[in-house]
Each structure stands twice: as C-alpha cells, then as structure tokens.
Amino acid sequence: SHQVLVGFAAETENIIENAIGKLKKKNLDMIVANDAHVMRSSNNSATLIKKDNSQIVTGEKSKKELALDILNETVKIINK
Hints:
With 80 residues, the protein is an alpha+beta fold. The protein is 34% helix and 29% strand. The longest helix has 16 residues, at 63-78. The radius of gyration is 12 Å and the shape is globular.
C-alpha cells in the first residue's frame, strides 16, 4: 500500500489509448507512453498518464531530462 507503480508503454500505434489500457489493466499509478519507433534516438518524448487520467506531454528532450520528469512526477504522487 506504500508503493507507487509506474509502467512503461512503448507503442507503435494508438499510443495513448494502448497506454491507458495498460494503466488500468495493471492498476498502475502512472504510465509513460512513448513511440517505439524513436527508442534508439538520443532524444525522446513521452506522455505521462496518471491514474486520475491527467496527462503531461513532455516534449522532445534528452533521455536524461525525460527520466528526471518521470522521477519528479512520481515524487508528486508519493507526496499526495
């Protein structure tokens, strides 16, 4: 009960819809949805989808910056 579950959905089509399905099916607190076609790139973008259906679009950035966004949103969930 004192854990935050974050999942990842690298999708090739229907990215948001498929990610929301995984979020619900796996009872996650947040899922990180991104396009699998750009995974080998040095930059990436993602949509962070929370259990309350709120969505945060990160925009394209380095994977290190993206990881920091994911961590910061996870901390916000912990601090609720």
